[in-house]
## 1
Amino acid sequence: MERLISLSVSEMRNGLLQKDFSAVELTQAHLQRIRKTNEEFNSFISICEDAALAQAAAAETVLAAEQGASPALTGIPVAIKDLLLTKGIETTCASKILTGFIPPYDCTAVAKLKEAGAVIIGKTNLDEFAMGSSNEYSAYGPVRNPWNKSCVPGGSSGGSAVAVCLGQSPLSLGTDTGGSIRQPASLTGVCGMKPTYGRVSRYGAVAYASSLDQIGGFARSIEDLALLIRTISGKDPNDSTSMEVDVPDYLAEVRTASKTQLQGLRIGVPKEYFIPGMQEEVEKSCLASLDVFRHLGAEIVEISLPHTEYALAAYYIITPAEASSNLARYDGVRYGFRSQDHDSLAEMFERTRAQGFGAEVKRRIMIGSYVLSAGYYDAYYLKAQQVRTLIINDFKQAFANHCDVILTPVSPTTAFKIGEKADSPLTMYLADIFTVPINLAGLPGLSLPCGLDSAGLPVGIQLVGPPFAEPRLFIAAAAFAREVAFDSRKMALS
Amino acid sequence: MALTEDDVRHVAKLSALECSDEEIPALRATLAEILDYVHRLASVNTEGIEPTSHVHGVVNAFRDDIIKDSLPLEEVAGNAPDFAAGSFRVPRII
Amino acid sequence: MEKYEAVIGLEVHAQLLTDSKIFATSSTAAGKEPNTLTDPVTLGLPGCLPVLNKRAVDFAIKLGLATNCEIQRVSVFARKHYFYPDLPKGYQISQYDKPLCTRGGIDIRVGGQKKHIGITRIHLEEDAGKNIHSDAAAVSLVDLNRAGVPLVEIVSEPDMRTAQEAGAYMRQLRQILRYLGICDGNMEEGSLRCDANVSVRPAGEAKLGTKVEIKNLNSFRFVEKALDYEISRQTALLDQAKEIVQETRLWDDQKGATRSMRSKEYAEDYRYFPDPDLLPLVVGHDWVEKTREGLPELPHQVFLRFKQMYGLDDYYAELLTEEKITAHYYDQAVAIHHSPASIANWITTELFGRLNKEGLDMSRCPVSPENLAALVTLIDEDVISGKIAKTVFDEMFQTGASPKAIVEARKLKQISDPAVIIELIDEIIKNNPKQVEEYRQGKTKMLGFFVGQVMKETEGKANPALVNSLLEERLKGPVAKYSPCCE
């Protein structure tokens, strides 16, 4: 069993095609792993045991009939962040307010995975409505980091990161509004990508901040990640903001990339991303990874993204504003939780929302209502959207004149202790300082492990490209990973 | 522009979030800290800068005027906390 | 000169006749079982996203052009936030600072005078659902079938001065909407709704008085009655030097008065911002021009054409152009038989009268324009008299048959053969010597008696003009044998 869960997706595919094991065995191995580890790590909110086994059985039929011509993920388990709607499976967003909500439709990304034959193994834990950077703000309790159980796995897609790290699932979907895939990937030592805004349909992803939200995923290797991201990408008529841009075969591009592919690749390193207060070992690991890229033939150039210092402030105006609007629909009328303790309609609304949402969600809703309210809109929201333009222009300049890819740290620190930042929202917000500018600019960002700190906790680097340059990021990351050979798996548990 | 406790009450009302008097002071302090932080944008010169609401600057996405199946009433009712006579039931609107 | 002047502006909401909703795929049909026309977007389920119905945009552009608005190249959908059970997302998608149409206006006619009423803006938005309040239980029921039906909101300039002008403006708007085929204009069913803003100021004063909003005026009559009431209420307050409160009021038709609406639970602060789920709407020159080319003839254009082409006066031109279907009917009938005055008269008196009596509208008119034209042709060609024509019309209305067929089947053809008529006349003269004597002694009024006798004998089919002249001739002197060959 342990052998099956530590395989890569291509190894699983080969094993299934060569009948070394069946799709049902593969799913069972992962279900067993979840059962064994979930109590300890709390990475799953729901485990779809029966549905998963049924899908696996169906996959066996497809494999037998179509063999090598079967869809690429036939029989491969995938875990889904519980922010993405799954038809017939409770979707909670880790919030009390959605208690009992059974979606009548599938998120487009989930539907695409199903079409590709994937087995939906369960729904993973997260910060409530994706608002958080530690996975501590969950109505279903915190998720623990496999590298050190007293540490957070990062967030908000903490459960999805841990699922992949622990071998509960070879692949998982997450969402990333300000770093919610890249930061937990970094803190748990796995690969994660937030694609270009508009690359993956947002239809069926519960909205946090619509102009920044993007679905992406986690895997233990760049090749697996490339396959996953390719599967969920593409224009969706149900999402007006999804883009009509061809989806290349990312996996094929990675596989056919020559050894000298990085020759002459200009990697920009923004000086604004090396700030006082960041963990020294993170900085050192980042600089060491530059040497690896140099060795691979890349050219390292220092660049400047002058408006970086304003990104976090702009982010914490725009996202709460959009969140306050997106979360207005949770009123206890049509679905989810309703407070029974009320004497009037207004009380029903106010108590349902006060009791249904957690503290961080309520804070962000209130900040959002404030910055949009009469008299403050121009000073806050409009201003933030203008600063956003300046941040986008910084990146445009850099890519137009100086570099092909930008490399930065993912997070200023490695995994921090559970409880360390949970009571200070602002300190928590600072955990996203290197990831939010990429969301503001709508760019693709890839997080991959580059080493461990002295405490044995993973450090990650972030590769950023211009819009729709995902292939470039996969190729560079794959070359780096071959060189560094970081093992993302935490199979032996203490 | 210091955030007052009345501001917090007003914003809670706008957000339809019940907020007890005991919660207000701590909430005010936290929200004020966040607003102070984001207020640093005031120092950025944004004169003549267009605000961004869509990163890729795309326009016009349409659908054709075509009816698709409605959700079956059971599925509409199934998720509702209080459903009767084919309708969502709420405390009486005055 | 009046002591006070009222200033009125209207906000009119019109439901657009698309098949599906503005941002969702469920049907816009009315009168279905509650919550049977929903989908994830309409229910505001988590994760769902709006996608704009292109036809709704086409319709709004049509209306903008028909009301002489500028079509904005770029318009933006924004979210308007408030909590209400019939508003599934907690916000309404509308257009705020960048509406689709701006700066237009239409002409109205009141008391024979033409007046221009400016239109500030027209924008697209989604309708809310319906709350049904139960008196018995302490609950309200929410039906979301109507949620997401496309609306245009038409905001006028405060250019109206009387309730009558406001009524005329509403009627004119409704007429345009119906000519364009983009709204059924049914106020009772709520597909056309009106909120009015009204203030009163001393005549000659430039500054506006305190504005009162009257909401949900769902008939033309209510618009006029509520405004008349509100103007006199405000006038009385000004006369007594009392304060007019800026507020929202409702028309209570039973009491014949407006009353103050209870202030809302929530402070009005809609927190508009551009909807990040929808892209800016860009309507280029080609789109506008293509729409302009496809516009139908508009009511005021048809009105002018009817006057010029057919020599109609304002009265007939207005009656015949009120509904597009009537104007079209008239055009068709006149094209078959060019007798514009007579056909106008037949439509506006006999046809309208019968339709009204049967509670039908023009769309269900049993008399085809071809048949009406044929009927007028029979009159004009002296085949039947005007009086017989009414009998024929009656049957046409009941059976939808052609007038020719009716005339033949019922042998209603006019008797215009002098020999036949003279024979009758001579017989009548012979049988009524007393009346003949009276006539001959100068009591010429008696002619009516003889006409009546002829008509009675011919069941009204005798040509009246011929009957008159022959009677006069035969009554003059002693009866001689009539011989047509002597003529």
## 2
Amino acid sequence: MSSMHLTPNLYKRSAEQEPIRNGFGRGLVEAGRRDGQVVALCADLTGSTRMKAFSQEFPDRYIEVGVAEQNLVTTASGMAHMDKVPFASSYAAFSPGRNWEQIRTTICLNDQNVKIAGSHAGISVGPDGATHQMLEDIALMRVLPNMRVIVPCDSVQAEKATLEMAAEIGPMYLRLAREKTPIVTSDDTPFEIGKSYVYRKGGDVSLVATGSMVYHALKSAASLKQAGISAEVINCATIKPFDRETIVASAQKTGRVVTLEEGQINGGLAAAVAETLGESQPAPLLRIGIEDQFGESGQPDELMKRFGLTAPDITQKIKSFLGAETGAKSKNPGKTKSKGGHK
Amino acid sequence: MKHTESELQLLANTIRKDIINMLKTAGSGHSAGPLGMTDVFTALYFEILRHDPATPDWEERDVLVLSNGHIAPVRYATMARAGYFSVSELQTLRRLGSNLQGHPERTRLPGLETTSGPLGSGLSQATGMALSLKMDGQQHRWIYCAMSDGETDEGNTWEAAMLAGKNKLPNLTAIIDRNNIQIDGPTEEIMPLEDLRSKWESFGWHVLEIDAHDIEAVIDACNQAKAVVERPVVIIAHSIPGKGVEFMEYDYQWHGTPPDPEQAKEALHQLRTLEGEIEGEHE
């Protein structure tokens, strides 16, 4: 979509790649320059959460708490109470993985302006294995009142999200990935917390993706086009508050919806979409993501394949979903959900 | 001092009666902890804290974090007596729609500094506040954290103790209610805490120990804490759980139980007569 100003050579092998977390690191430094109240807290992962640059430019506003994730977010809560704008960062498996109750009580119920950045989310963390591959964070965070949940699709968007998070008041969670991810958006691509965006228009099926899966969805849509299937691709970069209008409008048009995420489909983006469709625009739904299991060690690309999340995998799944749907529709017009709703 | 010692003792006695009345009306809640910490809270609100009940969010105020939220009745009663809200509102404790939730919620009542209940998180928040003061060079403001001995079972407490010790926070004073009880029994049976003093010292804290019912000692200790500029201070306040009501004192079973109407009547009688030391006025 020209209005979305996506990267022009997106579908080429030469597409530029960068870890999503790098954008967070840049955004944090810029946020620190713009606002002297921005502070950063880290739990012994300064380099890999990309807080290093901030810690070097603003050593007096950087708090190292050691390997203590409960203390990480509760200290941040106390700082927010004194009008600081704290960003608390660790691996998502530990924060919000380990400190959920502290986030619930001292940040959400207490309504403090704390920004939690969970790095290394998803299976593409790779060789570290299941313990470090956080797949449940979207579900854990979106269930909390007052919390907003943001999942940027690339490093450029992560930078914008970080800056907007710093400027807006309230508890927020930012989901970040470790691996290099193709850069999908440009500086001119619109981004606003709370909005989903149509990145590619189509009429046969809606692909609602978040995070690193936006790129795979776009790539899959290009393949589907070869097969005569017109797929609409939506980047759902804010899981909460959920942009119901954009999803409902797309489902109304296409009648069939696929969700794509690098995390548990139970409780994740898939759940947010299913809840919305169920209430406002019932439609057959295919949920692509991690299906109620843990990850394992392997190279990131191997793991994406192992869990069926690469563009060819999802293209295949979408084709059979649509085939089943079309078949069901033509044979039993009244029972479109009988096969399409599996998984 | 703004008040004489006997004035403060009288205030504390009034607050204890408020606590009994609140718990009786509510029909649920914790008795032992609030009664045990009444003298400390009286000293804090009427002598120690820099605060303005008419402007609860005054930017120059000292901050009192209550970590063990279940002793909220003592904070509510002391705040009401200090002028934050009307004393009659105390009777709404734990009722639907009340500002006085069973465990304190910051967003419901101006003057509460945190939301608490789940144990072990208060000291971290107080540490974050003291870190902010240090960053901003606000040496004249103070952060107090009232906490329980039972919640030192929580790992989060010690994570905070380490961070505050590391940063040598001069404007942080923790006050531990050392009443030796927790829900399941005596602390030294459930999870031994001793040697509590050396634990804190080894985490880089300056330790003071006082009788939690000697109001002057509480005030002196808080003043002394201000003179310790190189490290955070913890005041281990040795208290009698259920203080002032004979049948509640020292008994861990009153940790999470309210008095029934008969027991409340007896408790109020004891408080009116200072446990039999003086004649009741209208008995």
